[in-house]
């Protein structure tokens, strides 16, 4: 599999998560306050809810349902009740296109 256009960079709002689905994989795409684009698994590991409906604060995405915050850089939960990380995907920006390959995890 190769990187697929997930969305346009211009579609992203700073400090808000945007849900995309690529080949059946739900991904939360976030433009953080520093202008960096992140892509993490969109399903909270504590409960089966969409992280893209949560709250972005600097480089974290907080689950709206139970309050677990996940690092946008590593996918690791920063507080309970979640204790399992979410996947983090490599992002490539090509002009206004945000490209993600859900088969390729970001190297940490």
Task: Provide a descriptive summary of the structure in words.
There is one protein chain. This protein has a single domain, classed as Rieske [2Fe-2S] iron-sulphur domain (Rieske Iron-sulfur Protein). The chain has 108 residues and is an all-beta fold. The two termini are 21 Å apart. Helices cover 0% and strands 44% of the residues.
CATH superfamily: Rieske [2Fe-2S] iron-sulphur domain
Oligomer: single chain
Count of DSSP H/I helices: 0
CATH class: Mainly Beta
- Nearest-integer average pLDDT: 95
Strand content: 35-45%
User: CATH topology, anyone?
Assistant: Rieske Iron-sulfur Protein
GO molecular function: 2 iron, 2 sulfur cluster binding; metal ion binding; monooxygenase activity; oxidoreductase activity, acting on paired donors, with incorporation or reduction of molecular oxygen
Keywords: 2Fe-2S, Iron, Iron-sulfur, Metal-binding
Protein name: Non-heme iron oxygenase ferredoxin subunit
InterPro entries: Rieske_2Fe-2S, Rieske_2Fe-2S_sf
Topology:
Layout (H helix, E strand, L loop, with lengths): L3 E5 L8 E6 L2 E7 L5 E5 L13 E3 L2 E3 L6 E3 L16 E7 L2 E9 L3
In short:
With 108 residues, the protein is mainly beta. The chain contains no helices and nine strands.
Structure keywords:
9 strands, three-stranded antiparallel beta sheet, mainly beta, Rieske Iron-sulfur Protein, 108 residues, six-stranded antiparallel beta sheet
């Amino acid at each position: 599999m190769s990187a697929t256009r997930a969305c346009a960079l211009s579609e992203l709002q700073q400090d808000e998560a945007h849900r995309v689905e690529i080949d059946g994989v739900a991904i939360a795409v976030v433009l953080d306050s520093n202008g960096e684009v992140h892509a993490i698994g969109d399903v909270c590991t504590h409960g089966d809810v969409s992280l893209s409906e949560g709250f972005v604060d600097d480089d974290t995405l907080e689950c709206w349902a139970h309050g677990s915050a996940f690092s946008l850089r590593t996918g690791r939960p920063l507080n309970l009740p979640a204790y399992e990380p979410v996947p983090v995907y490599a992002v490539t920006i090509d002009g206004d296109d945000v490209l993600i390959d859900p088969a390729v995890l970001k190297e940490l």
